[in-house]
Write a structure and sequence with these properties.
The chain is α+β, with helices and mostly antiparallel strands. The N and C termini lie far apart (about 125 Å).
Length: about 475
């Protein structure tokens, strides 16, 4: 092709509305028509070296930059559309480039602006990064905020008027709108779209269950069997709709979707990929929450089981108050605590008077009932933290009263006698009263590091022995002669 032909070609291309870059391989020259000059922000038709340096391109996938020479030599496939990014000044534009070889020396590339600023993709990438970061360790009380944020992001980037999340019922026979974002001036429908049965939108349910995708760029063109759906879309003024199913453990559990009411949108593969990506992250967040809830539930069950085992191990099976094991542990701990704080501690040991005669004459079942009632009364008198009533053995009970001196302990034993008398449990075979009574012995001291539980029990038991030997139904205190 001669110079005249090249010039004629340049004159012809100059009137084209598309941005066109012409390459003459014989002279390695580049020519830009008027639209290309505007696109590249240059003033001359023939590109000089300075202009070429200022114009660079980038691959959307690899982000690798390349020059005009490489654009013609390697990066454009003549058989397909090619998406590239134009770096011009501080701006980035996404272009669709097509290559045509006119002869062995002459070729051209047309550039069509996709009308999506590349910053939008960068913005979406940042949003996705933020959403994924927030959803990795999401807590149940925060997921609603993150879903709302994700729906707003996908709605904006897909140029939708509404975006939403639906959940199917366990039997997948109905669905409910759980989250919704709407653009300014667009009517929300979340309150209306609750427990929608599959019989109302059968075509939609069938498509979602089979393909997990419901896509309609023009809802008026849906098939005849989608009449119910078309009526619903008309009611909501939906012109275009795109929904992607959410799967959990290989089953569809709901969907994420967008729709347009102001104008139709020809949904692109990019829209579908973006919506699917956000949907998968939300589904994974629900999985993580379910796993955490299951784990927490298992932990709670283990804790409850351990608590019950601990209670069983430390509770008397008949009277339901502390048993000897818990009594021994509590007494040891309270001795140490009172020794640290230089506080007194009191141990009471009491015994039901003539209980063998009670059992022999009234029967063991009545005897068990009496043990329960006495135990309950003693337990109810222990109102402070640290106070403990325990079944010490047989018809014997023990009470630990930390930070209690001798005077207060005497008051407490008087309360015991009063409560037992108020029970008015008949005992006609007792030698001291016509009702059940207790003999009580107690010992009070300020413990130190040498004090042992055995020594306190021994002294309280001695006091009980004295109470029983001196007539029963009375209180006796063990006092060491040189104890202050």
């Amino acid at each position: 092709m001669g110079v005249y032909s090249i010039n004629k070609m340049r004159d012809t291309l100059s009137v084209f509305p598309l941005a066109i870059l012409l390459h003459d391989n014989s002279t390695n020259s580049y020519y830009a028509n008027k639209s290309a000059q505007k696109l590249f922000h240059i003033d001359e038709e023939k590109l000089c070296n300075r202009a070429q340096v200022n114009i660079t391109f980038m691959s959307p996938q690899s982000k690798k930059r390349f020059s005009i020479d490489a654009l013609f030599d390697r990066y454009i496939n003549p058989h397909t559309d090619n998406h590239i990014i134009l770096n011009i000044k501080k701006d980035k534009l996404r272009l669709n480039a097509k290559l045509a070889n006119l002869s062995h020396t002459l070729s051209l590339i047309t550039f069509e602006h996709i009308h999506t600023h590349i910053d939008e993709q960068n913005h979406f990438d940042n949003i996705i990064s933020k959403i994924s970061t927030e959803l990795i360790d999401i807590q149940n009380d925060n997921i609603n905020n993150q879903i709302d944020y994700a729906l707003k992001a996908i709605g904006n980037v897909c140029h939708a008027d509404r975006s939403y999340l639906f959940k199917f019922s366990n039997d997948r026979k109905s669905m409910s709108n759980t989250h919704e974002w709407v653009n300014e001036g667009v009517t929300p429908f979340i309150d209306r779209l609750q427990n929608v049965p599959d019989s109302e939108l059968p075509y939609f349910f069938d498509v979602m269950n089979v393909t997990h995708i419901f896509k309609a760029s023009d809802t008026s063109e849906l098939p005849q069997q989608a009449k119910a759906e078309k009526d619903e879309f008309e009611l909501q003024k939906i012109k275009s709709v795109l929904c992607i199913g959410l799967r959990y453990d290989k089953e569809i559990v709901g969907f994420i979707g967008c729709d347009c009411v102001k104008k139709q949108r020809d949904w692109s593969d990019v829209d579908l990929i973006r919506l699917k990506l956000v949907g998968e992250m939300i589904a994974n967040a629900f999985k993580n929450i379910n796993y955490k809830e299951e784990l927490e539930q298992t932990q709670r069950q283990l804790i409850n089981a351990n608590q019950k085992l601990n209670e069983l191990a430390n509770t008397d099976g008949l009277t339901n108050i502390a048993n000897r094991r818990r009594f021994d542990e509590t007494l040891k701990n309270e001795i140490k605590r009172c020794a640290r704080h230089k506080q007194s501690i009191c141990l009471i040991i009491c015994d039901i008077d003539f209980f063998k005669l009670y059992n022999d004459n009234y029967g063991h079942q009545r005897g068990d009932e009496t043990l329960k009632r006495v135990a309950s009364s003693l337990h109810n008198l222990c109102k402070r933290q640290g106070d403990l009533a325990a079944r010490y053995g047989g018809e014997e009970f023990a009470i630990i009263l930390p930070a209690t001196n001798s005077t207060n302990c005497k008051v407490f034993t008087a309360l015991i006698q009063k409560e037992i008398a108020m029970l008015a449990i008949n005992h006609n075979y007792s030698n001291v009263a016509k009702h059940v009574t207790l003999s009580i012995g107690f010992y009070t001291l300020i413990p130190d590091k040498t004090t042992t539980p055995e020594s306190i029990i021994h002294n309280a038991d001695k006091a009980l022995y004295i109470a029983k030997e001196t007539g029963r139904n009375k209180v006796s205190e063990f006092v060491i002669s040189n104890q202050k």
